[in-house]
Amino acid sequence: MTSALSKKILVTGAAGFIGFHVAKRLLEEGHTVVGVDNLNSYYSVQLKKDRLKQLESFEFFQFYCLDVADHQAMEKMWQQEKPITHVVHLAAQAGVRYSLIDPYPYVHSNVTGFMVMLEQCRYQENFEHLVYASTSSVYGLNPSLPFKESDPVEHPISLYAATKRANELMAQSYYHLYRYPITGLRLFTVYGPWGRPDMSLFKFTKAILAGETIDVYNHGQMSRDYTYISDIVDGILAALWRPASVEPREHPLYNLGNDQKQSLMTFIEALEEALGRKANKNFLPLQPGDIVETSSDIQKAKVELGYCPKVDIHQGIAEFVEWYKTHTIYLK
Known about the structure:
By secondary structure, the chain is an alpha/beta fold. It has a single domain, classed as NAD(P)-binding Rossmann-like Domain (Rossmann fold, 3-Layer(aba) Sandwich). It contains eleven helices and 13 strands. Helix 1 (about 15-30) packs across helix 8 (about 230-240), helix 5 packs parallel to helix 6 (about 160-180) and helix 9 (about 265-275) packs across helix 11. InterPro entries: Epimerase_deHydtase (IPR001509), NAD(P)-bd_dom_sf (IPR036291).
């Protein structure tokens, strides 16, 4: 039974990596969750369905297989599920490199889908907060490290990043015009159990266990602010429950990272340690759209959200490997 303080929360992208973990945490805390996902085939649909299976074991979870860019379907769902007081918008077409191959889904899902969400929230009575996911990729070729929310972000180097920067600008216009609470979160390289098979941790693990060679871009001269999924969920929920204000001129934006960047080679070494095997490496040039280095300044999130990442790269990768060994079916 839900508590008197429980809320009804819409989580878009609920069958996705981050959306699944956010929805699960909310359900465990006693809230009602409405999940939306179109279950597209960008990666294993079975993986998405198996995430959903876990969510559907909760009494207060309702799932809709919908495209967030379909404004009529989304409006009908919202009418059926009133009153939704909070939204965590995570539905998006992900992947920097895939945006160079097929750009159209990025505009459809990330731009049109976000437009639909902004419009739906605008018209809801007693609506409390929209939290949406942006990305560290918006910093593009910014030479100043670590990245701060106040840094210029007008030079994205991939279409994926451009669509996420568009989200931030769209959110700002709605925040200014309609004065309802909106918060954006720039997420830094999220990893962990139930993650996406197209990401390096999955691909490296599969290849190393199979004795195959892994591709190491920019000859290993890259670094990332790898952030474990439980830390990201902590930050998202801290933002969601923060008393939202519409008084300031700009809607809040926060970096959610680990605050400890690691080189790609350190990342690979931690994976080798967890697997007990060495990787055969194929060193390659930097790929188009890739950022050489990301590093998050999370001071703002620490002060205003109480955000404090706890999981280091060795613990996080070890926990992923433990999960992976019983879930290799998703990479066949």
